[in-house]
Design a protein that fits this description.
It contains two helices and 31 strands. With about 375 residues, it is mainly beta.
Length: about 375
């Protein structure tokens, strides 16, 4: 059995010995388990767990076979049977609003497994015993600039949106603090320093959502924020803004570098800003691809439609024969490609929304509003 996880804020890349046959999907109503039927070339729902729990992050530890699920209100859960049953491992976490999960490189046998949890409010925790005990990396809460996190100009309190473990430097972490800033530590969390990235008068670092490493050069990193994308060739010391809004993505959601290191980058996101969703009910989201390191982009087609919901989760899967991608939306749709994004097939529909926090609620409110507008217009006519 080859398992992958699909979630908005969990680990979104994995390496497998062959193409996946089992998938865990994080939704607002729990974890959905999908299993591929080779005979029918279809994916079927094989289970539903953590029912009524809004799960926003999933992470698999292949060294022990554990799967972890972070929820927005009920803390952290651990599964020993590939997502069929769960136990709470929240004792020791000071906050139960788990926003993000990350782990050290599990392919390096000499490196001990470290599990990281980011919460709202913005705190960072680490476990070295697979969730049995926790320690808080307290330096994050007093990092440079913390006084302004979540203040005027931000739509929600500060939260640890993403944690990126450096692929070769074991003591280095990047932490994206949503409604806050972009931080880096080179001493396993004892000290943090702030990284800044400007795009005109917009501070992209204050809206950081994800750090992605180039597969061939870990000094080359991409910063994905809700206001744009930037690229650094010196580990975040300086940045070059990557144009995306000109190519149909004004609200970036998920960014991945192709594992072959040939400059191919995938970016999923919405054409419209989130603040418009409550009025339109339409994110107008899509996936784009760049073949020149982010300088130009084209829309990914091959059966992948334009979505009215937002693309909230993308997982990139590699195996010896190649790589593929799986995407999920706030409308409960899942699409997959097994040939490097060339062609796509719908794998599931009608699932509970796959969503970061209240994104699905914003879109639902917008659709109700548009129905009301239409009904009023019909009465007038």
């Amino acid at each position: 059995m080859t398992l992958i996880c699909l979630s908005p804020n969990g680990v979104d890349t994995c390496r497998l010995p062959r193409a996946p046959d089992t998938m865990l999907v994080a939704t607002v109503g729990g974890v959905i388990r999908l299993v591929r039927d080779p005979a029918a070339a279809a994916w079927n729902v094989d289970g539903h767990s953590l029912i009524d729990v809004h799960v926003g992050s999933l992470l698999q530890d292949p060294t022990r076979g554990f799967v972890f699920a972070g929820s927005y209100s009920a803390g952290l859960f651990r599964s020993r049977d590939e997502g069929r049953t769960w136990e709470s491992v929240s004792e020791g976490l000071g906050h139960l609003n788990v926003y993000s999960l990350a782990s050290s490189d599990t392919t390096n046998a000499a490196r001990p497994f470290e599990l990281y949890v980011g919460t709202q409010p913005a705190h960072l925790y680490r476990s070295r015993d697979h969730g049995d005990t926790w320690e808080e990396l307290t330096a994050l809460a007093s990092a440079p600039g913390h006084e302004s996190w979540g203040k005027a100009g931000f739509s929600q309190p500060a939260h640890v949106r993403h944690i990126a473990c450096h692929p070769t430097a074991a003591d280095t972490l990047y932490v994206c603090v949503g409604s806050g800033g972009l931080l880096r530590t080179d001493d396993s969390g004892r000290h943090f320093r702030a990284l800044e990235c400007q795009s005109g008068d917009v501070a992209l670092h204050a809206h950081a959502r994800r750090i992605v490493f180039s597969p061939c050069n870990p000094d080359e990193v991409f910063l994905q924020s809700s206001r744009g994308v930037a690229r650094s060739l010196d580990s975040g010391g300086s940045w070059t803004v990557v144009p995306t809004s000109d190519y149909g993505v004004s609200y970036p959601g998920c960014l991945h570098c192709a594992p072959e290191g040939d400059g191919v980058v995938f970016l999923a996101g919405a054409r419209t800003e989130r603040r418009a969703w409550k009025e339109t009910g339409d994110a107008d989201s899509t996936m784009t691809a760049s073949h020149d390191g982010g300088r130009t982009w084209t829309r990914v087609r091959g059966g992948l439609p334009r979505f009215t919901g937002n693309v909230e989760a993308v997982t990139l899967v590699t195996w010896p024969a190649g790589f593929g991608l799986v995407v999920a939306t706030t409308d409960g749709e899942v699409f997959g490609s097994t040939n490097k994004g060339e062609t796509w097939k719908q794998l599931a529909e009608g699932l509970p929304p796959i969503s970061t926090r209240a994104h699905y609620e914003d879109l639902a409110a917008g659709r109700l509003y548009m129905q009301h507008v239409y009904a009023v217009a019909c009465r007038v006519c």
